[in-house]
Amino acid sequence: MLNTSDDFETLVEQGKAEETARNERLSKVSITSGAELMQKSFPEPRYLWNSVLPDSGLAVMAASKAAGKTLLLLQLASAISKGRDFLGLPTKLTKTLFLELELSERRTQQRLLKMGIVADRMLSFANKWTPGDEGLKTITDAIKEHDYGLVIVDVMQMLWPMDADPNSYQDVYSVLSPLRQIANDLGVMIVLVTHRRKMQTDDYLDGVIGSVGIAANADVLFSLIRTRGEQEAVLHIDGNDIESKKIALRFNVDPLGFCLSSTSPEEIGLTPERREIIEAIRSLGGTAKPGQVASVLSKERSNVGHAMQTMAEHGILEIIGTGIYTLKNPIPTVPTIPTLEADRKTGNDGNTGNGTLGGNIPTDGELF
User: Fold this and answer.
1) What residues does each domain of the chain span?
2) Are the folds of 47-260 and 272-327 the same?
3) Among 26, 219, 228, 294, which is least packed by CB within 10 angstroms?
4) Rounded to 10 degrees, what is the CA torsion of 221, 225, 229, 232?
């Protein structure tokens, strides 16, 4: 029991202190009723790369070594810095900074020349950057000083503190969270490049190093799947304000880079036998019976029928009648891709985000 006025005054002061602390905590958050929320109007999302890359936030590009992730991002950076279409989608003209932290200036120039990219004042490069917290502050300084709207960091681990573990959720979160905050505060898009694990996974997101921490912070996640030495690749795209999609790509050597592929994303990575069956069905008009496919391929009908049944079970083919199969994902028509030589004749620099086909696939991983 309280026996003195001092005890009462102490309780009053404690109550006031608790109320002050509670009000301070509540002042740092924003609570909106459902009724108020439904009455609000918000602007439509704006994009640097239409329907794929918003104009602000944090994105991550993940791919295995030598898959071509840097090439693809160089093509994207060049297209955005010129306001040109990329892979059939329009971009918004934006000043861009590319942190190429794994290559020297000389090698960066060599790569750009092989890609047919002519960089101008709208696209800048940095080959050295301070790691850790100072590096993050320097990114902020550079954005404010030069008015960049897109910053690409290749690779993001070069910015990390020396003791940061890319497989640790806490470490990944502690590195990415400040970058995302910088992007949102300044209204810019920051794209980070990282690696995929060598092991195969059922879900492509699981193959991204630090995937749990990345998924918690990234507004957009790109994952480029390409086997070294193969011409075809699939770009997986997921994000908060974008529709998940897959884009089939083809790797070229002249000029160096990627273009849209006439092959569907579902076909890329299939066994040669299954791809033969798909090509045979396509040659027959998109719908066929096992006997017809077997005749085209000069193979046993029973073996082909079993393979087509398995493909239907896996969602690659669709059964539309008794013993009649069709391609489940018809291939869209791919727009004509202008060549580098044609662009030169018209005064362009050849950087359409596409390219011509031909040449042997280089095996030097440093090119990618």
Assistant:
1) 7-39, 47-260, 272-327
2) no
3) 26
4) -100
Q: Is 173 exposed, middle or buried (0-12, 13-18, 19+ CB in 10 A)?
A: middle
Nearest to 70 by CA among 228, 301, 258: 258
Query: What dihedral do alpha carbons 176, 179, 183, 189 form, nearest 10°?
Result: -70
Q: Which two tokens stand for residue 263?
A: 């092959």
Task: Mention every residue, 6+ apart, whose C-beta is less than 8 A from residue 20.
Answer: none
Whether 346 and 340 have beta carbons less than 8 Å apart is answered as: no
Q: Nearest Cα to 349, choosing from 251, 257, 232, 249?
A: 257
Q: Thinking of the domain 272-327, which architecture would CATH place it in?
A: Orthogonal Bundle (1.10)
* Structure-token pair, residue 187: 């209204």
Say how many Å lie between the first and final Cα of the chain, rounded.
77
pLDDT at 161: 66
Stretches where the chain sits below pLDDT 50 are 2, 199-204, 206-207, 209-210, 331-368
Please give the single-letter amino acid code of residue 199. Answer: M
47-260: what fold? Rossmann fold (3.40.50)
Residue with tokens 């104009």: 55
Cα(139)–Cα(145) distance, integer angstroms: 10
Residue 65: Cβ within 10 Å count = 11
Give phi and psi for 186, each to the nearest 5: -95, -10
Model confidence, pTM: 0.71
CA distance 353 to 84: 8
The answer to whether the beta carbons of residues 228 and 66 sit under 8 Å apart is yes
For the sheet with 232-239, list strands across it. Answer: 123-126, 96-100, 150-154, 189-195, 57-63, 220-225, 232-239, 245-253, 256-260
pLDDT in tens, 281-304: 989 999 999 999 999 999 999 999
> What is d(CA 121, CA 51) in angstroms, rounded to the nearest whole number?
26
- The tokens describing 354, both together, are 């596409």
| CA neighbours closer than 13 Å in the CB half-sphere of residue 239 | 25
Q: What tokens appear for 171 in the block? A: 């470490």
Query: DSSP characters for 166-185?
Result: TT-HHHHHHHHHHHHHHHHH
Q: List all residues 6 or more positions away from 240 whose beta carbon is below 8 Å from its beta carbon.
A: 57, 219, 220
Helix axis angle for 169-186 and 132-146, nearest 10°, is: 20
Single-letter amino acid, residue 337:
I
